[in-house]
Prior knowledge:
Mean pLDDT: 89
Helix content: 25-40%
Shape: globular
Number of helices: 4
Number of strands: 6
Radius of gyration: 15 Å
Order of helices and strands: HEEHEEEEHH
Strand order of the largest sheet: 2-1-3-4-5-6
Distance between the termini: 33 Å
Largest sheet: 6 strands, antiparallel
Amino acid sequence: MEAISDLNTFAKILTAKGYDGDFHTQGAYAGKLKASISEYLANCPKGVAKKELLLSCFLQWAGEDLPRIECLMWVKYLNGKFFLGRMEIAKKDSYGQVMKQSELTDLSVVTTPKAKEAITMVSDAVERNNN
């Protein structure tokens, strides 16, 4: 687990890796990664922010009636620093049922795969050849 000094650096690295869509922090606070986390922290009473944050986003979305790829990230938040330790990527059908899933552990924000690589982990071979 590698320490990242601040939210700006954390968000910049993940955005550069293709995680540039809208996120939810703790199931709320929709927005780009930095804005979502910032809004969550701003709305927590002083000293109440959770030490582990759950970030969620769609890596692929084509509409409610089609399969989608979701990403969950478990991020430790300690003394203003962010540590990405675990990630789950899941391809789900239009009803939300998991079709294929991959879990990555012992990560850091630097070793996190690019968003396109994460999508490939749960895509079918036919889909990969068409992209």
